[in-house]
Design brief:
The complex is a heterodimer of chains A (328) and B (221). With 328 residues, chain A is α+β, with helices and mostly antiparallel strands. Chain A is built from four helices and 16 strands. In chain A, the strands form three sheets. A twelve-stranded antiparallel β-barrel of chain A has the order 3-6-7-8-9-10-11-12-13-14-15-16. In chain A, strands 1-2 form a two-stranded antiparallel ribbon. Chain B is mainly beta and 221 residues long. In chain B, 24% of the residues are buried. The chains are: A alpha+beta (328), B mainly beta (221). At the A-B interface, strand 9 and strand 10 of A face loops of B.
Chain lengths: 328, 221
């Protein structure tokens, strides 16, 4: 009987130990989750978003992002380049675009953040006609933005914000310069080969995200504002930018820490320093790492359907972007 | 008269909210150094540089919540800019450049910044941001040939946004605040008259930093 009691006590003790382990194990998981939760990535509820590069997140977070991208047009069709009425017979080439941006966003409170972004964008022709006809355009800019949370729960996040885009737009217009030299017979100070013009855009933004489940989420951003002319004696223009992106975290489906996001964007004004206006349509596909809330690395393919001055019609651009994000 | 009553009612609504309790109010005097200058287009081979100038203001703050205050700071803001030229002063064997100032543009604005202060949990550190309207009170252009006060050279108003941070040292109901701000002008300051003068009108704005110290007194609740 005494033996049975000892066995029973041992079993109870062991059972209690097992019970302690089983109760401690979930608490360790919860603790781990809390530790992870202190680094707030682009997560809303259960879903970890893999955001499109260079777009504003619909969350208030402290983060740093770096983007490097390049693109090239396809099938550019430009009219024969002429100087002083004389045609220049040369290959057309394409338009190449390169860009770099770095942004830091600092959450002041869970409902307020500010960010600073530096940008460098450039576009130039890859051959004689495209280089002479389209020149070289560069933008250096610093954006300053404020974001205010309107609502955030496990399913929805809605923010609004204000952004100042303070840029310097440099245009090298070879055609205009060459014609000016021919007309006047010499190089004059009135006829500059390149012109740099400061311009400030003020834009209001509203953005929302929705989590369907751990695997899928959707976010959208609408930006509207006023854009100063990027060329001398130009007109003020309205700026409109609408983005819709659908995000899938494959970690929730096949336990692969990869997220894909498909985005479509409609933009009413160019972000590079060309004078033409028009509507830009972009399609993005981002493939990113989703194994960690605190770090995001992604590559993004983009397709753009954009107007180009003096081209016979809208031009297709294909590009790629490397996107790195650090959340704090 | 009716406008005065309306303004009084708005102020009363802030200070005496519907609950009957008196909203927390802080009053203060501030001032410091600004380094706000012209940026943008400059003549060929020249550039604009900001110079230090002074500013002074009143500080009125109404608590919106435990950690957010609505701030209004009417005051006088001086700004100064130099037009710098780089000239070669060396020899062919030892080339060197020297920067010389050819023109100083000094302005004074009546300013009305309206913004918020967001305090940390300790209520010592704070973040501040908002927008400001500025009315040109005086412009003076200091050249090598003398000083003159031109008319209609720049717009007689400016609008800016600002953001910055500060540290508050509480001493009973008093506090001393030390603050740094960045102020970004939004308006192209070239006047309409000047726009018509130039074939290709330049674009200039005024932006820069403010280093501000203030003494504030917080009314007891």
């Amino acid at each position: 009987m005494r033996t049975y009691i000892w066995v029973l006590l041992l079993a109870l003790t062991a059972g209690r130990g097992v019970a302690q382990e089983t109760t401690e194990a979930p608490s360790a998981v919860v603790q781990g989750a809390e530790t992870r939760a202190t680094i707030q990535g682009p997560r809303l509820g259960d879903h970890l978003f893999s955001p499109i590069a260079t777009t504003t997140l619909p969350f208030i977070r402290t983060m740093t992002t770096l983007n490097v991208g390049a693109g090239i047009s396809s099938g550019l069709d430009l009219p024969l380049f002429t100087i002083g009425g004389q045609p220049v017979y040369a290959s057309v080439g394409e338009l190449a675009v390169v860009g770099f941006s770095a942004r830091h966003e600092q959450a002041i409170k869970p409902w307020l953040s500010v960010y600073l972004e530096a940008q460098l964008l450039g576009r130039l022709g890859t051959s004689v006609t495209s280089l002479l006809g389209q020149g070289v355009n560069t933008v250096t800019g610093v954006d300053l933005g404020w974001k205010i949370r309107i609502h955030e729960d496990q399913r929805w996040s809605v923010i609004t914000g204000l952004e100042l885009q303070n840029g310097s737009y440099t245009t090298i217009d070879i055609q205009r310069w060459a014609e000016g030299v021919i007309d006047s017979g010499k190089v004059t100070s009135d006829n500059q080969l390149f012109d740099t013009k400061p311009a400030l855009n003020v834009a209001w933004m509203v953005s929302a995200a929705h989590t369907f489940n751990r695997a899928m989420g959707l976010y959208a951003t609408l930006t509207a504002g006023v854009e100063e002319p990027k060329v001398r004696n130009g007109e003020y223009a309205l700026l409109l930018d609408a983005l819709l992106a659908f995000s899938v975290d494959w970690n929730a489906i096949v336990e692969l820490p990869v997220g894909t996001t498909l985005g479509v964007e409609y933009r009413e004004n160019p972000t590079i320093a060309d004078s033409e206006d028009g509507s830009y349509k972009n399609v993005y596909l981002r493939i990113g790492y989703t194994g960690d809330d605190g770090f995001g690395l992604g590559v993004q393919a983009s397709y753009q359907y954009a107007p180009v001055a003096s081209a016979s019609g809208p031009v297709q651009f294909f590009g790629g972007t490397l996107d790195m994000r650090f959340y704090f | 008269m009716s406008r005065t009553v309306l303004v009084a009612l708005i102020i009363a609504a802030f200070v005496f909210p519907a609950g009957g309790a008196v909203a927390q109010v802080t009053l203060g005097l501030g001032g410091g150094l600004s380094r706000i200058g012209i940026s943008g287009d400059a003549p060929l081979d020249a550039s604009w540089a900001a110079r230090f100038a002074a500013f002074a203001d009143l500080h009125v703050e109404l608590d919106v919540s435990d950690d957010v205050g609505l701030v209004v700071e009417p005051g006088l803001q001086f700004r100064s800019s130099a037009l710098e030229h780089t000239i070669s002063t060396g020899t062919a064997l030892a080339p060197s450049d020297t920067t010389v100032d050819s023109v100083y543009v000094n302005t004074a604005y009546w300013s009305l910044p309206v913004g918020i202060r967001v305090y940390s949990a300790s209520r010592r550190w704070y973040f501040t941001t908002g927008a400001a309207a500025h009315l040109l009170q005086k412009i003076e252009i200091d050249t090598l040939d003398g000083v003159y006060e031109p008319d209609n050279v720049i717009q007689n108003y400016d609008v800016s946004v600002f953001l910055g941070g500060g540290y508050r040292i509480p001493i009973d109901q008093w506090s001393v605040c030390l603050e740094a701000r960045y102020q970004q002008g939004l308006i192209d300051l070239i006047s309409d008259d000047q726009q018509q003068t130039f074939h290709q009108a330049p674009v200039i704005r005024m932006s820069g930093l403010l280093f501000r110290a203030s003494v504030e007194w917080r009314f007891a609740p």
